[in-house]
TrEMBL record:
It comes from the Bacteria. PANTHER family: CARBOHYDRATE DIACID REGULATOR. Residues 448-505 form the PucR C-terminal helix-turn-helix domain. This is PucR family transcriptional regulator.
Length: 508
């Protein structure tokens, strides 16, 4: 099918190639050929050109005129040549798009074709705002956005700058954007003087919102030329065909409902049992083995309403930042499962790299995270997630100013909390410690404080005396009194361990 070309599209391309023209009359008039305007002759499907800047066509017709009156037959002929070249350029571009639809080129290569007629920065995003592709000048545009906000660019590889993302996730208008069936403009205010206006077209698959093509107007400009809008709409029509025909619905919607995501979601969030046969069959599709080592991360977000809308986007970013991983969301929570056996084979992925991604995520998206130990055998998946939950819960109590917590750093605290869940502390702690506690209560002594400090200093009397601001001899005499009162044997390793454990149970 031949491309439907309008007068505005021809005008846009002429100006794109250095012209300075406008459309008088109907900007949407269809164009099949171009002719110099002859008085009284208005052909159907013809875009007339005239050197007369004030030419007035009849209703429904269009004439291409210079923006300023240069006059002369030579100017009209130059306009004819420029307009004819523009029409041919549009038709040839359409032919290249049609050819691409019947070839096996990649999405990135197909998007490169857009740049033949769309000089503005653009991005192509899935329904989770994960970038599927972008124009070659996208990073330059992102740096300009960052400059207007007085910050460095944080948008590598075509991603939306985090500063813009934060505004999007909070904007009710943007949350309603997937409902738009027609092209629309979205405005983001960068500062008191500058706005970012983007021309957006949603792509749908069987009536479901699947992706969005976004073209950014130059900073500070309200709209794109009408002809540019029509060119973009034509390209998106072809892009939709390309996407549905060659990448299918899985690529369009993301892969958050494959067998692995569904299995992990059921086990971690819905309390479903983890059956060995189903586990092995499911993770085999990823090239994972049940015997592989893995760890889990649990992210919890502060503002449920704000971040629920961004959850799938963050999951996509996590999976793309570290390969061999699976991220899934549930309300205010994201679970991230990483296959460390496969990651170990990749020299560029280390434990530090994983922690850096966690740190960047909690910094950008206002959340906290718990990280499990590395476990072996995916049948322990639920236990690993419980470790990350425990790290998060205990860590926030012990060090609330931290943003992420590793289970290994709070293992002793976890043991203490597990013991307290079965019996009250007073039934578990050493009777000899209880004797010192009673003496402190009755006599106002500080035997428990002294015991704690002495054990913390590994029973080094000199260091303990310094910490307690007393003479070493005075400390030794106090320890002797404590032994007489309680019967403590500091030479018995098991008793010393029990005393230290008892002090932890008291919350020390």
């Amino acid at each position: 099918m031949q491309m439907d070309v309008s007068a505005s599209m021809v005008s846009y391309v002429v100006n794109l190639y250095g012209g300075n023209v406008r459309v008088a009359g109907n900007p949407d008039a269809p164009v099949e050929r171009v002719r110099v305007l002859r008085e009284g002759k208005w052909g159907k499907g013809v875009l007339h050109v005239s050197a007369d800047a004030v030419a007035r066509p009849p209703k429904g017709r269009a004439v291409l005129v210079p923006t300023s009156d240069a006059g002369g037959t030579e100017d009209a002929l130059a306009l004819l040549e420029a307009a004819s070249d523009a029409l041919v350029s549009l038709q040839e571009w359409d032919a290249r798009l049609e050819g691409a639809l019947s070839s096996s080129i990649s999405l990135a290569e197909f998007l490169r074709l857009a740049e033949d007629m769309i000089p503005y920065s653009f991005g192509f995003y899935d329904s989770n705002i994960a970038v599927l592709g972008a124009s070659s000048n996208f990073n330059e545009w992102a740096e300009g956005v960052a400059g207007e906000q007085g910050r460095a660019s944080d948008a590598p590889n075509g991603t939306i700058p985090n500063s813009v993302l934060s505004d999007l996730f909070e904007d009710e208008e943007y949350q309603e954007a997937p409902q738009h069936k027609e092209p629309f403009y979205y405005t983001n205010t960068l500062n008191d003087l500058t706005t970012l206006n983007s021309y957006c077209i949603n792509l749908f698959n069987d009536g479901d919102y699947a992706a969005r093509f976004v073209v950014n107007a130059p900073l500070g400009e309200q709209k794109l030329p009408h002809g540019a809008e029509q060119v973009i709409e034509h390209f998106v029509d072809k892009l939709t065909d390309f996407f549905i025909r060659f990448t299918g619905s899985d690529a369009m919607f993301g892969n958050f409902h494959d067998s692995v995501h569904n299995l992990f979601r059921g086990v971690l969030f819905d309390g479903e049992p983890l059956e060995a046969e189903a586990l092995e069959k499911s993770i085999a599709s990823y090239g994972w083995l049940r015997s592989h080592r893995f760890l889990t991360v649990k992210f919890v977000f502060f503002e449920a309403v704000k971040w629920e809308s961004a959850a799938q986007f963050i999951c996509t970013q996590l999976e793309r930042s570290i390969r061999c991983s699976c991220a899934l969301s549930h309300g205010r929570t994201i679970a991230w499962v990483l296959n460390t056996s496969l990651l170990a084979a990749e020299s560029d992925v280390s434990d530090e790299a994983i922690v850096k991604v966690v740190a960047d995520t909690v910094r950008v998206h206002a959340c906290k995270a718990g990280i499990s130990d590395e476990l072996e055998d995916f049948s322990l998946l639920r236990l690993a997630f419980e470790q990350s939950e425990a790290a998060l819960n205990i860590g926030q109590m012990r060090k609330p100013h931290f943003w992420y917590y590793r289970f290994g750093d709070y293992l002793l605290d976890y043991l203490m909390s597990s013991m307290r869940s079965d019996y009250p502390p007073e039934l578990l702690i050493s009777k000899k410690l209880l004797a010192l506690m009673r003496e402190d209560e009755e006599a106002g002594s500080e035997y428990v404080k002294t015991l704690r400090c002495y054990l913390d200093c590994n029973q080094n009397a000199t260091h303990a005396a310094e910490a307690l601001f007393m003479h070493r001899t005075s400390l030794l005499r106090r320890l002797e009194r404590m032994v007489r009162i309680s019967g403590i044997d500091f030479d018995d390793p098991e008793e010393v361990f029990y005393l230290a454990l008892s002090l932890r149970l008291l919350g020390g």
